[in-house]
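Q: Could you write out the predicted structure for this multi-component system? I'm mainly interested in how the pieces pack against one another.
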Amino acid sequence: MALSRRAVISWLTLLPAVAASVIAMAGLFGARREPFSSAFFTDPFFVHTLSFSLFQAAASCLLSLALAVPIARALTFHPRLLARRWFLTLTALAFVMPSFVLITGLMILFGADGWLNFGQDRPWSLFGLQGILLAHVYLNMPLAVRVMYQALQSIPADSWRLARQQRLSGWQRWVKLEWAAIKPHMGLLAAFIFVLCFNSFAVVLTLGGGPKSTTLEVAIYQALKYDFNLSEAILLSLVQALIAGSVLLAAGYSGKTSLFRIAQRHRTADISLSPTAARNHAAVYGLAWVFLLLPIIAVIGKALGSATVVAIAPIAAATAQSVLIAGTAACIALPLGWAMLWPLRLSRQRHPRTALWAEWFAVHHMVIPTMVIGVGWFAFFIQKVDINRYALVFLITLNALILVPFVVLHLKPLLVLWDQKHQRLLGNWRPSPWNRFFIEWRFIKPTLKPLLALLLVLALGDVPLFALFGQSDQPTLTWYIYRLAGTYRLDSAAQAALILLALSSLLIFWMEPRHARSQ
Amino acid sequence: MFSFRHLAFAPFLKPSLLAACVLLAPAAFAQTLTVYTYDSFVSEWGPGPQLETLFEAQCHCDLDFVVSADGIAMLNRIRLEGKTTKADVILGLDNLVLEQARREHLVQPHGVDLSPLSAALNWTDADFVPFDYGYFAWIYDTTKITTPATSFETLIASKARIIYQDPRTSTPGFGLLVWLNKLYGDRTPAIWQQLARQTETVSQGWWEGYSLFLNGGADYVLSYTTSPAYHVLAESDNRYAAAPFDAGHIAQVEVGAISANSQNVVLASDFLTFLLSPEAQTVIPTTNWMLPVIDGVALDAAFDGAVPTVALPVDTLWVQEQKNSWTRAWRSAVAQ
């Protein structure tokens, strides 16, 4: 295959992501002492861990998708839902909910004094598979609702009218219209949720309730940190990356979905709604509100109910530090991700397999545990540079790299669409790179606000990277929360978490289209 | 050799210049002692800031803390740094992990006079100097439990709900692992299985379990005998107490050591000696919420229950040798 100069240059854009992984691997390989041993893989505990990881991810994914369907339908069909826009904002917030807030909220709700505790003989405990599923559904079902709602919104009004005229039954309408609209998005959505749950860490460690619920990610954490068995950590992360990566790649073919967008304007589907159906939709909608709000309210109650008030000055400093790191990282990740789509776009039509590789390199950081990259970098640089002096550089660089896959996932469908539309035009016109840049910029600009907010909120939640590279006298807000919690100051931690939640909510609110009105 | 240090005292200098030199002196000329430690030790509530002020006043040196997330992260950092480490003092390993550092030759003999140490500690280690300690214990709410467990047997018989931490990821959890094996030897897996029936959850870290307990998620949580003192002194809350076990408790002893690569051995040794001084030991109880390692430190009455009647000795080498098989035994006993 003869590669044009342009193709070669385009592949260079992937260099930062690939170099980051190479550095991490070099660091881990250089520092490991134990030889690679397959003993761990024949250990029945590894088999158990792997199958549990797969099972809980699959179950979390299926549950999230299944529960999202009635909610997305309620949003679409009920003509007069109270605060529909606010609900959509809440779904965005729930998806990026800082894990401290969620875990604390669930613990308050399910503790003995909690609102959802039904006495000593309670039918079930929060901890174990059920706790993991509950938290994963809380985090991911909202995303599924958004994508499905978006898909249902894209069904033309004529189709609804036609369905009504042809007197399609509810089932027929579901198959022919609704499912047909949702289906194209299901591949990527399911894969994305599966990977998030498969790689989930804080939730599993806290709500898993013991070694029964160990996942691969937890095993990697243990190998990296407590056993300091880097060989085992490398092998385990390879297994993890292979599985998560294949799932994501398999879904990559269906690249039509932009996961993080939401319609500017709501249109209620034009169907005849029986009073019973309307009531059902309203009930589903109400339950979804309660489900998503309860943990937040629990944390607010805990934070405001405390007699002590957390000191404001360190919180303000920590918040500033968080915003600095997350903001810079997001601003770096955005152009990086955009550029990394270039080789994929060039080869997509003629060499789909090459394009797949290009996409894999662009998003592969999503399937490698952050901690593995972090420890790898730490091991690589610790003897070469003064890590403490350049802490901020490391934190920003690594956070940016972790965010790149989200940029790629968001922009890919948009830019692929743009390419399809303008291919012929561009073939004749051949604009200069600058011109092309500005044309594309104008095209993607309106979608960048939600993306930027998402990136910011994700980076605000970073713990593993700060744990490695952070300077203790300049903590981020998230780190400060864990420090409060780790030194008995649980009420103050809840208060600080509330500030993090408020900051995230502001960003999310800023991200949602504001001028839209329900019709 | 000419040294700038002498300039500050040169009589021919103008007073203003002299003042400037004196002001600059500590920063420009003093030795720097680099102390590796963990995050909460140097946090605004930890003992770090006060100890730094106290020690710098007497050593005329600059104390520089290099901070890791926790003791294990610090150990890993030093392992990765190898010979390039800047650490003079490694502060915050404990008796349950110190053999790893010794085996990998990360430390050197401290030469510190250990005679101030409280006899109860029975500590003679040549490489590690204790600076505080605390006993692992089950904490309960006295308004809910009137007759607390006095042994693992009575704890199991009471069917009370318990929370403990994962021995693979948390120091108290690992402490429980050692405690049970110390008491029950080969019978430990059976005890684990019985405890599993009443375990609400095994939390990853200390705070998750403790937080859940404070929210009423269980009757007992594994923590330290010093935990109730925090609630009394910081929150004026007398509700919580540590259940004293007749068979005894084991301690986590936090230690400092001189890094094998330190070029500052004398100053490092001075610092470890300073940690055993009454002024340093007075700082520790209400900042690190652990017990002082020397006798005669005035402690608030809130700490009264913190020293158990029976303290079980821990053989650090035995812990190091057995910990993997203990962890595996726990895993398979609890995962059933």
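A: Regarding packing and overall arrangement: Chain A touches chain B through 50 residues (CB under 8 Å).
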